[in-house]
Amino acid sequence: MMLHEEIVALRARIARKQDERDTWLAAGNQAKYMKAFCELESLELQLERLRQEGLRTSMKHFARAPVSAPDAPQSVTPIPAGR
Description:
Helix 1 (3-27) runs antiparallel to helix 2 (30-64). The protein has a domain at 20-60. The protein is an all-alpha fold and 83 residues long. It is elongated and about 80 Å long. The chain is 72% helix and 0% strand.
């Protein structure tokens, strides 16, 4: 699975876990609410790690990309002194 697909799948899991957490909160079941809360925190940490991995990969790719100098202008008109 590609990184983007992993992030999308993880976001879907986070949304489901948020719904579950909110359901337990509304039901007044503190034990199940706390469990869902902790699981949600774990999923959010996983998402952050994937984001960081994506940033590192992008930076490595960007750093390896060839750098080309822009084309120099064909003629340069000097600016007269006094202006």
